[in-house]
Design goal:
The protein is an alpha/beta fold and 318 residues long. Helix content is 46%, strand content 20%.
Length: 318
């Protein structure tokens, strides 16, 4: 029996699954961040090593594990230089004293970005589109010919339209404009005050600037806009509809680039934005299906690490 490892490495956590050649998950482990561009290669190695150890520790009690393939889907890995760095990391993994036997060949080591494994895990195959809208946003697709197309993923300054960060920023901006009298009144003004325990909306300056809030802290405020939209606030609904339009436009761009208008395919939606109360998923799906009747919009069938496991298994079957 063949055993493979699928690894999903992101900015907040690393997930590893141990899978056999029947696509059965035998173990799952988690560890900290493995975005080497943020935390450095040594810390990334430690996180991946810990996730692997946690995934295999139960199985090695009764079996000697021989790992035949590995797939690492890591955030921020897209350039050739990034792949070379991760290749060296995989070599270091094999030199460490993990309780497994490595039987890797170069053809059985797959390094890719996290969008591909989210696609494969979410749909169950490598053909389709993933629309990721969490703290940031990106749309990625792959067709039957193996051609890929990415739209977005440029980060919170240059892009990330439709993301939780951009929704939160738009919400705070709308609240301040309402306070100034520049825009129509919105419940967002009071909503932000209450949520952040502010005496005045002017105190947002202290929260956002003087506390040096980062992207994740600001993105975490997106549910305030979502709830206001679900409650019928006009301004909040405009913000949500604008986010939907951006995500639909990005998805349509991917379809036009590598599929045909009548292609039968699935679009999987991942990320915190889709779990809101204002039916953003339904709004997005309705718009996509209106333009592309053969497209089905779904929630993920499985996690990205499972997709990495499937891709690793494919390398053993060639």
């Amino acid at each position: 029996m063949s055993y493979v490892l699928g690894i999903d490495g992101g900015g907040s956590k690393t997930v590893c699954i141990l899978m056999n050649d029947l696509c059965q998950v035998l173990g799952r482990g988690e560890a900290g961040s493995s975005n080497y561009q943020s935390i450095g290669i040594e810390a990334t190695l430690q996180s991946i090593q810990s996730a692997i150890h946690n995934a295999v520790e139960a199985e090695i009690i009764t079996n000697t594990l021989k790992i035949d393939a590995i797939c690492l889907g890591l955030a921020g890995v897209g350039r050739a230089a990034d792949i070379e760095v991760v290749k060296a990391l995989v070599q270091d993994l094999q030199n460490n004293k993990l309780p497994i036997i490595w039987a890797l060949q170069p053809t059985n080591i797959l390094i890719c970005n996290d969008a591909l494994i989210a696609l494969v895990g979410g749909i169950g195959q490598s053909v389709g589109i993933v629309v990721a809208a969490g703290t940031g946003s990106i749309v990625f697709g792959r067709n039957h010919q193996g051609h890929t197309k990415r739209v977005g993923g440029w980060g919170y300054i240059l892009g990330d339209e439709g993301s939780a960060y951009k929704i939160a920023i738009a919400g705070m901006n709308a609240a301040l404009k309402s306070y100034d009298g520049r825009e129509i009144s919105t419940s967002l003004l009071e909503d932000f005050k209450q949520h952040l325990d502010l005496e005045s909306i002017e105190d947002l300056i202290e929260v956002v600037y003087r506390r040096e809030w980062g992207v994740k802290q600001i993105a975490a405020l997106a549910p305030i806009v979502d709830f206001a939209a679900a409650s019928g606030d006009i301004v909040a609904n405009i913000i949500i509809n604008d986010a939907v339009k951006e995500l639909v436009k990005a998805t349509s761009t991917v379809i036009d680039a590598i599929f045909t208008a009548d292609s039968v395919l699935e679009v999987v939606t991942t990320g915190s934005v889709w779990r809101g109360k204002c039916k953003i998923h339904e709004r997005f799906a309705a718009s996509i299906v209106k333009n592309f009747p053969e497209v089905k919009v779904i929630f993920p069938r499985d996690e990205p690490a499972y997709g990495a496991g499937l891709l690793a298994l494919q390398t053993t079957q060639k």
